[in-house]
Amino acid sequence: MSKKLLYNPLEPYAVKAARTVLRGEGISNNPDLPDVGQGGNLIDFGIEYFRCSVSDFLEKINVGKAVIHKSPRRILSSEPARNESKLKILSVKPLFSLALFQYLSKRAISADLAEKHCQQVYFELSGKPYFAIGFKNDSGGYELRNAFLKISSTPKDITTIDNSSSRVCVFEGFFDFLSYKAMHAQSQLPDQSYMVLNSIALFNKALPKLRTYDQVQLFLDCDRPGQQLTRQAMASDPRFEDASGFYKDYKDINEWLISKQNPQQKKPSIQKRPTRFDEL
Questions:
Q1: pLDDT (tens digit per residue) in 72-85
Q2: What's the pLDDT band for 18 if we cut at 50, 70, 90?
Q3: 10 located within any domain
Q4: What are the boundaries of the region Disordered (predicted)?
């Protein structure tokens, strides 16, 4: 598998596990997991997802050599991901999978909130069946996430939630948007619109629409690309504002939100985050 990918295929677990999933080795033909009514960890999820034994799953992910991470890594590339052209959406349904709800819970997102903005998407990747949380963009494509995959279908585009307001909040990914909504679940948000870039590379495409608002609040990631883009946007137009101050010690809003639900979790070191497989 080429390292030149636009997306990161793991979130947030092992590198070798993600490679195995993307190759489609041993994928079950069962489209969904049973509603077993129990919690679980990565191994519980894996044996249900792959319909295999614990030993078989451990062999799949080569857990002795795997590197476990607490958040997804960004893989930068100048080439399109060839796998996206091999992805075919099969069906879209309301969220109901226990495994996906467990994954959302680990990301500090409630089921009720996710059900308002996301769907359960079944798709094929290189002829193998998968399902994931789907977040629809303005062109009908989907951002697709589960515990093993971070990928998108074509066409790739931004997602706009226009509430006919003069202010818009801008996020890199839909988990950041959901995290912002979760933060304010018990409070009344002001009248505002929302835009999810779904990739920082789509910012220039989003600019004409963003400039129709009087105030643009940027909730971008606290890594070098996100902060550099924030500075450039603010320098080019006074309507753009940096709204990332409250999570500046974390990679993004979702990581900050998770830390608030798990006070013992240490603050991550943003500067030391690897961005490529060969840095892991």
A1: 444 333 334 455 56
A2: very low
A3: no
A4: 261-280
Asked if residues 194 and 219 have their Cβ atoms less than 8 Å apart, the reply is: no
Q: How far apart are CA 118 and CA 97, in angstroms?
A: 12
Average pLDDT score over the chain: 77
* Cα–Cα distance list, 280 to 227, 255, 271 (Å): 23, 20, 14
Backbone angles phi, psi at 144, to 5 degrees: -120, 125
Please, are residues 124 and 154 in contact by the beta-carbon 8 Å criterion?
Answer: no
Q: Are residues 69 and 132 in the same domain?
A: yes
23 and 134 both lie in a single domain? yes
Report the half-sphere exposure of 105 (CA within 13 A, side-chain side): 9
- 179 with 96, same domain: the answer is no
**3-state secondary structure (DSSP) of residue 133:** strand
Residue range(s) defining the domain that contains residue 220: 159-272
Task: Select from 120, 152, 184 the last residue of a domain.
Answer: 152
Task: Report the CATH number at residue 196.
Answer: 3.40.1360.10
Q: Which of 118, 122, 54 is nearest to 87 (CA)?
A: 122
